[in-house]
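During the no-cost extension, the postdoctoral fellow (Dr. R.K.) reprocessed legacy sequence entries with the updated structure-token encoder. One reprocessed record is reproduced below for audit purposes.
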Amino acid sequence: MERYLIEIPHEAEVQACARVVRVFLASGSHVLTHADWGCLDGVHTAWLSVEAESKEAARYMVPPAFRASATIIGLNKFTMERLEDIMSRHEK
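Re-encoded structure tokens follow.
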């Protein structure tokens, strides 16, 4: 399994925050419990850190109403053993 960071932005109005949280609640507790929110600090975004088979599989973990606006970021760790491989991918 690969790890992905999912960013789901929303508007800065209180109603928008409430709507997003309601959709997450309706999507099941597994979605809400994995979400971190920046709303109280003025960053109106939810982040989820998930494990999935692919980027597309990670996108399907996002509630349907927000899939189009979600950004899916593949995560990696840097180790000395993998440094050469990682640097060669970065140069492409």
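The helical segments are 14-26, 29-33, 55-59, 83-91. The CA atoms of residues 10 and 16 lie 7 Å apart. The remaining legacy entries will be reprocessed before the final report is submitted.
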